[in-house]
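User:
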Amino acid sequence: MAHAPAASHHRGNDPQVAVSGNHILAIWTAKGGGPFGSGPIGVSLSSDGGKTWRPGRAPAVASEGEEKTGYRFPATAAGPDGFHLVWIHAAGTERSLRHSRLGFQSQAWSAPGVIDPVICACCWNVLKVDASGTLWVLYRDDEPRDLAVASSGDGGRTWSLRGSVGQFKWKFVGCPHVGGGLGFPGAAKSASEFLVSSVWTGHTAAGAAFALASRDGGKTWPQRVELTSGGAAGRHTDAAALSENHAAAVWDQVSPDGPSVHVRFTGDGGTTWSEPRRLSRPGRNSTYPRLIAGHQRYLVFWTEKDSSKQSFLRMEEIPLAATAR
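Assistant: Predicted structure:
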């Protein structure tokens, strides 16, 4: 069984990796006859910490016309019971959010289940697993076109649709091609204690990026702050939390010297946020930041292009003590 060749990937539609001990899963959308050349999920597995790899089976939905089906914008995470995968299932006119699980010792994925039967067609998804084993998904809904949260406390067998993040009630026919970020403290027993999210919405003329926080599992998001200042429009975002009170949000925006990456922090659970801090260097094309929290620090990664148009992966480490400056 050969590895499936990758379809056209780009930032925002990245291959994904999940890790649990020595078990590693890498997934991507393979080439196929679905929308924009998409096909099944490509799978590669390692049981020895990445020393050796083997091709894995792909999750499959039993339906007619599978050769014209796209498994798009997949996201993966490792839970206590195995690897979990969500994707946009594109078959005919269907655009649904699906889930499947692969046990660490299993050869085949569980039968895919439907999380939400009607969603947006091409925005990236986020999948996280909290300390209790609950699955959390951030995805762009269909009506309204807000980012929304769903969760499962039984390994993906059943799902609770928790609704829009921020209740922007954005009415739009089309796809903005942009997802968001979702985070919670790794030490929390459940993410229902504190969730932080970053979103982009086009409900205003120019669109805007926001950070929001919830203390009831995403049912309500009472506080929201526009991430940018000075009239700039933020777009690609991510969010993470170190504790039930301390979180960060990152984004990119168009600055006078080109696209740039910025960060803001909250120390009171999202009620107030620090002023924006620029992370990227002047004159560098810096986009698509990603954020990780842990060990009393944040790690920010982003794509940077220099004057020769070569792309680099940049990283910035921000200790908790430095977030107050």
